[in-house]
Structure formats: structure tokens, C-alpha cells
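#lab-general

N.A. 3:47 PM
ok so I finally got the sequence cleaned up, no stray characters, all 174 residues accounted for. can someone with queue access submit it? mine expired

B.Y. 3:52 PM
send it over

N.A. 3:53 PM
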Amino acid sequence: MRNTRTLSLLAGLLLLAVMATGCGQARMGKYSYRVSLDAANRDPSTQRMPSIEVDFIAVNEQEKELWQGQDIDAYFTPGNVLRANADKYTMSFTDQRSQPQVLPRSDPIWDKWQRAGARNMFILASIPMRGDRPTVDPRRYVLPLDQARWSVEMIDLLIKPSGVVCQTPIRPAK
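B.Y. 4:20 PM
back already:
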């Protein structure tokens, strides 16, 4: 009887410890990202696609504010120190190379991001902006890496003249 009670108490404590460490801890998932250019990016007079670079930077909670405040025009300026030193994956689109591109979940960059404790994926695109700049720059898109938020392995993104658009449904935060 006493052994059963002790065993029950230990099992309860173990369960409590597992719940305490597991609750609120987002587990980083590795995803493939497929990026497509919207045909509306074509210059109406020349029918050419502009050159657009798309950077993927997975960041931890401490780095999130830095990347949230980064000016996109300054970031894509040649010689930008933050861009030069970032652990990033870059896709380059041109008129000759405008087909969809994929960042595979098997790419070694994911291991670097995982070791750094990444929780969010920043997608930054050098889309030429026309007109007034909105308060929130649509060329910066942030997606969670939490496994609980995604039911897929491939996330589809569309680069429009107005900004980056995620076409894959995401589960609401709990």
C-alpha cells in the first residue's frame, strides 16, 4: 500500500514536471518555403520582371525587436552590415529567373537557426515600392516557427507589388 502511494506520488510529480516544462514552450518546426512572384510585378511598359531578393532570417525572441525595426530599404542597400552578417537564406529573382524557388526544410541553415533558438521567421523582400510608405512595411513578413501553428511542411509565399503574402493557412495561437 505504501509503495503504491509512493509510486503514485512520484508519477504525479513526474507528470507535473513534464507539464511545467512543456507548457508554453513552442517547439521550432522546420518548413520548406516556396516563393512565387505575382505576375502583377511585371513592368507594364516593358513586361519585364524586376530583380527582387528575398531573405529568410530565423530569429530568437531577443533578436525579434531588432529585425522588426529594420528599415527594409536600408537593409537591402549594398554594404549593410546587418544583412552581411545575418544567418540568412537568399533567393534572387530576375526577369530570366522568375519561376518559383524553394528553401527546403533539409537545408543546413535550419540547424544553425535551431541552435540559435529561433522562434520566428522574418521574410524580407526587396520589392520596389510605389507611392506612400505604409506604417508597417509590407515587404517584411513574420511567421511563427512553432510546430503547433502549422499542419504542413511546405509554406507558400507570394511576392506581390504590395508586399509579401502567405498563402498557406496558419493555426491561431493558443
